[in-house]
Amino acid sequence: MKVDFDSGEKTDPPVIAHVDRSWTDNNYLAIAGWILSKETNLDGLTISVDDVIVPITIWHPRPDINLAYPQYPINEKCGFFVHIPRKAKHQVSFEIKSATNNISFPFTFHSSNDWLPEDYKPNVNNFNEFISLINDNKFNVLEIGSRVVSPGSSTKRTLFPQASSYTGFDYYPDSNTDIVGDAHRLSQYFDKQKKFDAVFSIAVLEHLAMPWVIAKEINKVLPIGGYTYHHTVFAWPRHEAPWDFWRFSDDGLRILFSKAAGFEVIAAGLDMPLRMHSDQVPPGQETLAMYAGFGCSWILAKKIAEIDEGKINWDYSLEEILASDNRYPFSGIDNR
Asked: What is the pTM of this model?
């Protein structure tokens, strides 16, 4: 859908805009697109649905648009995404038939998406506890997957102002990455005497080909009593392909960082409640969207023992298990 905006004062619209994708349910309208000024950069943009007005706050680069319209001033961030709250109103007619009567009456209701499982505790994923643990104890902290990739994301380095040190580790370089390497060989990048008090990752485990090897390597760079925290995905669209390998439940994370791997689980769980529905509902799954699912999982664990190399061993390199042309996308953008 292409939309031109015209102030009414000029024959040539001063702004061009395009909606690339949109999605809606009973509670939200999501719009992704771009807007480009023909004269100068825009000062702001709001989008309205009924009486709800939402300012655009998430902008990202669209070099393809700048390339397609070289005659206009280059705006590095002209792509936008917005999530607009809404409450859909449904008008339904009930037609009831019996042996003696046929009854018809209208029924009107507003959508609801408030139900959650009884054991769900919102906004509890223990990352703030992990941050406090680092700062309060002035720990040396290592982040696996430190590169700032996604639009709107930022460095985690600033979350640890009281840490003795922060080391960023990633497969590709950027300004927030101190050491570039393969996390499956994490311990090989440090002296054996070098130990971190804490190791963490956010939205990384799903992109690591052999997460059981990662748990082993984390054990090697932690001292007894060291902490590790990981936040990953449980139900999520495919992204950063072709290196989008795994989905984790909290129970799966408990196995990954179990006593066999030298860890004691302090806490683990699921967060980010969501609804799941099929575009074509298969028989027997009609109620799927009525149950709450979860987008993410997390774990906080403590090292209690050195790993037993004889019992846990998977001595394969990435090159041995992946095709030669299978590479992690440098941009970090969905590569489906």
From this structure: 0.78
